[in-house]
Amino acid sequence: xxxxxxxxxxxxxxxxxxxxxxxxxxxxxxxxxxxxxxxxxxxxxxxxxxxxxxxxxxxxxxxxxxxxxxxxxxxxxxxxxxxxxxxxxxxxxxxxxxxxxxxxxxxxxxxxxxxxxxxxxxxxxxxxxxxxxxxxxxxxxxxxxxxxxxxxxxxxxxxxxxxxxxxxxxxxxxxxxxxxxxxxxxxxxxxxxxxxxxxxxxxxxxxxxxxxxxxxxxxxxxxxxxxxxxxxxxxxxxxxxxxxxxxxxxxxxxxxxxxxxxxxxxxxxxxxxxxxxxxxxxxxxxxxxxxxxxxxxxxxxxxxxxxxxxxxxxxxxxxxxxxxxxxxxxxxxxxxxxxxxxxxxxxxxxxxxxxxxxxxxxxxxxxxxxxxxxxxxxxxxxxxxxxxxxxxxxxxxxxxxxxxxxxxxxxxxxxxxxxxxxxxxxxxxxxxxxxxxxxxxxxxxxxxxxxxxxxxxxxxxxxxxxxxxxxxxxxxxxxxxxxxxxxxxxxxxxxxxxxxxxxxxxxxxxxxxxxxxxxxxxxxxxxxxxxxxxxxxxxxxxxxxxxxxxxxxxxxxxxxxxxxxxxxxxxxxxxxxxxxxxxxxxxxxxxxxxxxxxxxxxxxxxxxxxxxxxxxxxxxxxxxxxxxxxxxxxxxxxxxxxxxxxxxxxxxxxxxxxxxxxxxxxxxxxxxxxxxxxxxxxxxxxxxxxxxxxxxxxxxxxxxxxxxxxxxxxxxxxxxxxxxxxxxxxxxxxxxxxxxxxxxxxxxxxxxxxxxxxxxxxxxxxxxxxxxxxxxxxxxxxxxxxxxxxxxxxxxxxxxxxxxxxxxxxxxxxxxxxx
Length: 819
What we know:
36% of the residues are buried. The chain starts with 29 loop residues before the first helix and ends in a 7-residue tail after the last strand. By secondary structure, it is mostly beta strands.
């Protein structure tokens, strides 16, 4: 695999100013520390990728197209992958059964595709996933998943908002994982409704057995809050929540007699850690050394923690010693057993892109939108995707945006409700809310039991296109030619005497594309081979991960059944036209079109030329070249080469003693076959014209400077076209079991009306999956004039090798609202 493995960054002096201790003072604990470091290094050796998919909608009407752009990043550097090619995208139902799937081809970490939402779907929820085969090696969820809702407008009846019962699910989670008696504890709160969504602005109270109120708290918009208090080991406690005028009571877990509690506070440029314990615990641990490890899945830093004679100790960590994004704090005891864990997110160091004021250029039936991206660099890898939806849309509800899917979700065990919220319009309030969320998450997706005992193995290959192995049937062991395809140049395979086959990697066949082979015989003739090929991969791999459906928060009413079609048939507005005479400009010939991209004179080989010249050597003579063709050899010379670089001066002994003869050894013409330079042209001896599509001729050789001074000839073949015209079969056509899906143009459907609330809530205007920066740092796209004056753009993307943008923009433009 070509991906760079990020090295571990170990530092062996304390980074804290309190209880400063170097690792050299660990004494007997050095062995455990070495085991911790060694285990972590082994676990993180295999590089990871993470995926994100920008979907144009998450609520799709049956009959629409679900468009998507996938982004593949190196998990450590957060830069686009330069090696990932095979991206698998699937839609599965609630039983994990795959309904549709495809493989798309990534370039520099970016790829796009689409799914037609057709008769295979009905009105219910599905899961979209995007992943690589390599991601299957890891327990952490490095792949992308998103629940989507399909609406069948012909079957679905008017539907009220999802019914939410009065029953609440409340969890009270001590920070770090332990609720310790006679110790100040910080406790996170999560309150969810019967559908699993956070209940906003719930008021709560912590009361003791005598119903005395100890603490008041309130949840935020996602049902998350926290409180601090000191329980004792004998009393019992409960939490009373006030919901819709009623009280619901939940018991608090009994406090542990022994253990360590943790409180973390963000001081903006430092993180303050407070470790607290009670007297029962202190007597047992005061002479023992603990290890505090901080990591992000690739970089590990450690330091000593010791309680000595104090039941509370503090550690101050500078932002400079933390990694951008997630930092996982784990406290280990003297036996390398993890005691507690806390997640912290550092926004500093993440490169956020922002857009400037957009510009709209109007024309009669279309508009062009230009969006400047601040601080972007067009010369570096970049890709942007934009979904265009009506302003009042309720159909765009992704759980993650490109930033949360890259920096947060892969490190968390649970699904975070509206994770993208924490990475749009970032301010102190959102940073505080994200820290409260992380307080409630408990242990990260990096399981320490797995790290110590079961590091990942490369059981699933890192794929680069399609590979094959061809077995040769028969006794002949000669050369085989694989013809060029859309993404691959022609290849020649030369077999030795004992070879029974040949193979290749890095093929990128597109859908409906076959691979063509010909046998190059000893006399350089072309014949049909008899090959048997095995391909890898030959099917889309299954993640083998059962995933519970995470429903979208649909707390609005939508009516899809209106007694009429929502999507208009494409032929509904078709008209029968009278016959008209259309005048056009002169049709450009194929030779003219090819000459635009190819340097030199272009000769398209048609049936008349094939009938007149059976062999290539005979034809090329008529183009002003000297051709010497005898005894299996072919040499092409230019009788009028340009003056520079025309040949090598050769000096030989003369007939008379003491004399010499001087001559010039003329260089042959440089010849390419399907863009592959031929070391010698013998394989063109008696080469049939049947296989040749067109030839470019550059007699001056200026297309290659002095290297091509004797002239350049480029031969391009197309065996299928030749066979169909000449009725000769000189190649074997082989179907590939798994090919890359072609990127198709996105078409917004026609709706029966554009004034209904249903269209405004669930319609689609357009989708642009692969926008690139122009030289001025702008992204630009043109679309048909919308049927509404106000619409929204949902913009996601990356640039500068690791900077991200996620924005929602409202656009106003005068629109032709006629239906």
